[in-house]
Amino acid sequence: MPIYAILILVITVLMLISLGAAYIFSTTVLYARRQPIVKCPVDYGLAYEEVAFKSSDGLDLKGWYLPVPDANPDRGPERIVILTHPMLFNRHGFLSRHQGFPPLATTNVDLLTTAQALVEAGYPILMFDFRNHGQSESGLSGVGLLEYQDVLGALAYIRSRWASPPQVGFVSFCMGADATIVALSKGRGQVKDVRFLVAIQPVSAAVFIRAYLRAVYTPLSLYLAPLIDRITRWRGGFSLQEMSPRLFIKDVHVPTFYIQAKEDRWTELGEIQAFYAASPGPKELWLIEGIKKRFVAYNYVGEHPERILEFARRYFNE
Asked: Which residues form the domain of 8?
């Protein structure tokens, strides 16, 4: 076979492999593989109630309500924390054995550890599955640009459940933080009861994809990211640049506590610093030292919740 024919064949094969990889990554962005619900609050000695409500655009969402011990069922709580999860997770967390292809992480993440710390500190919890995650209804993902409607649905559910709506705080992880930021911007009149946001590792899709590919698939990162972007848009999604909370942060006037692993290889430190700088309200930034793995940092905040609890006590009107 002539050398030019071999070169054409090699280039063709590489192009097909790249297109296939980009398509698979776009599927992960648009239609996250669901994690099954295999843990529940009772495993941690916590009472809970299965709940269901609708997003503001009408999708069916499933979740849990975790009351504090000895709560009076006839009296609504004075304050409540909504805990929102990252992309590819569900309300209890992430198990690597259920992640499918391409494998993202080997670290299991347990969000119920964070929930337990909050309940034991006296804060009831609402935690739910975003659209196309866990047991909630299917729907296209916008990495926050669509999921904010799930956050507004959770707030509407709280207002409808109790005659005297409680104060609300958010403890939100990654895409959950993005969605909450967008909701606080777009919701305006619907978010008046919100007192604070703890935003744990929020990120723009473009930054995450670029950093992740650079860390894991270094030789392919330069041209795979633009391919993923094009295919994601071709399939009806937002561009990777659009899927970001950065344009909405200027409208978030509630106290905001940003938390980020300083050495996280799947993001760029300058982005979280830019988010912090753009926040107009009272704010704090905690850069966790010595953790390079993003998913390890999710567990770390649940295992070391003291700063989150102190922030909640400060901004709830107790």
From this structure: 1-30+205-241
Enter the pTM of the model: 0.92
Six token digits for residue 74: 């006839």
Choose one of 185, 217, 241: the last residue of a domain: 241
In the chain, how many domains are there?
2
pLDDT in tens, 256-313: 999 999 999 989 999 999 999 999 989 999 999 999 899 999 999 999 999 999 999 9
Quick one: three-class SS letters along 149-210? Answer: HHHHHHHHHHHHHCCCCCEEEEEEECHHHHHHHHHHHHCHHHHCCEEEEEEECCCCHHHHHH
Domain co-membership, 178 together with 292? yes
Verify that 136 and 271 share a domain, yes or no.
yes
- Specify the residue for token string 């005297």: 164
Tell me: do 219 and 286 sit in the same domain.
Answer: no
The 3-state DSSP class for residue 224 equals helix
Local structure of residue 35 (DSSP, 8 states):
P
